[in-house]
Design goal:
With about 325 residues, the chain is an alpha/beta fold. The chain is about 65% helix and about 10% strand.
Length: about 325
């Protein structure tokens, strides 16, 4: 990892609790679909990703869920009801960047202070220094990439920002014991991940220097980055390895695809699908010379598309079904079928 980064070695408990509350309200989405989304986004196998990394996240969420405290409906649904986490990520980053709201129970924090924190997050130049009038706020929201649903929810939040954040503050405080239980459940694995975090690679190359980078376990395969902070999943280093493996796999299958693109080699493989054959059988069946068949076989053998077995004093060629099955699976992963 290059650059001058300020790397935290601890989780941000407020960031994690907000994510845990959302995950418990959308359990299947966060423990399965999030891995599939990460795999799709980076061109890697979702099954391998889920099997390798999903168990720890699931254990973390389950431990929190057993002890969590919340009342469904009302403001809880406002913050955590949407299946699309777009609004969640936005307010989660803003809240995590303003720890004083939660550590001091909003003492001395005004409506305008909270409103400005959100409008500054929306503004690319972090420009507003005063609360925007409604028309300018609407114009700012329309200039962002956010969906109409997120813009609508932001408008509602900014109508009574202190009330909304006070509710969130209370909810987080109620669930600190549940969070501590969740951390205890994964402590050993978490310690190992945190110790290696600063030496890892990150999926994005857009992290500016001199901004704090905080690890996250609740979103272990993604990164949330703004101009003030970055929250990076603890498994991004491992996902980088899978991406490199996927790229190597793509390079490895190109010679196989090239071999399959040759009609004679393809015909040989199709013939061997029916039954094993020796050189002269293939030459006669496909109207090729024995020397030509031998040439094709050298290519097919080097790509592990055929195997050989000796029987009755002859060398028989057999189809390597494992290689073809692996090829089909790799192509399905690469092209996300």
């Amino acid at each position: 990892m290059g650059g001058l980064y300020m790397v935290n070695k601890e989780l941000n408990c407020y960031f994690e609790i907000i994510g845990l509350l959302y995950s418990c309200n959308h359990f299947d989405l966060m423990t399965n679909d999030s891995w599939k989304h990460a795999a799709l986004e980076h061109g890697i196998d979702s099954t391998a990703l889920l099997n390798k990394f999903g168990a720890l996240q699931k254990k973390y969420v389950n431990a929190f869920k057993k002890n969590m405290s919340f009342v469904p409906g009302g403001d809880f649904d406002f913050f955590f009801g949407d299946e699309d986490p777009e609004f969640l990520y936005l307010f989660q980053i803003v809240c995590a960047n303003h720890l004083e709201w939660f550590e001091n129970d909003l003492q001395g924090v005004t409506e305008d202070t909270i409103a400005l924190a959100f409008t500054n997050e929306l503004s690319e130049d972090k420009g507003p220094t005063n609360v925007l009038p409604t028309e300018q706020l609407i114009a700012l929201l329309q200039s962002t990439r956010y969906s109409s649903n997120v813009c609508w929810k932001l408008m509602l939040l900014l109508q009574e920002p202190k009330k909304k954040i006070s509710f969130l503050n209370s909810l987080i405080k109620q669930n600190i014991p549940a969070y501590n239980q969740a951390i205890t459940a994964v402590q050993k694995s978490l310690n190992n991940l945190l110790s290696e975090f600063s030496s890892g690679n990150y999926l994005s190359q857009k992290i500016a220097e001199n901004i704090p980078i905080t690890p996250t376990l609740i979103y272990p395969a993604i990164e949330l980055i703004d101009s003030d902070a970055a929250y990076i999943g603890l498994f991004t280093k491992d996902i980088y390895k899978l991406i490199d493996k996927s790229k190597n796999t793509q390079k490895a299958i190109l010679p196989i695809l090239k071999a399959l693109s040759d009609k004679s080699k393809f015909d040989i493989l199709h013939s061997l699908l029916i039954a094993p054959k020796y050189n002269l059988e293939l030459a006669e069946e496909l109207d090729l010379t024995a020397a030509t068949v031998s040439h094709h076989m050298n290519v097919l053998l080097s790509n592990k598309l055929v195997d050989i077995e000796k029987k009755e004093g002859r060398v028989y060629y057999t189809l390597s079904k494992n290689t073809l099955n692996d090829l089909i699976e790799q192509l399905s992963t690469i092209f996300r079928l």
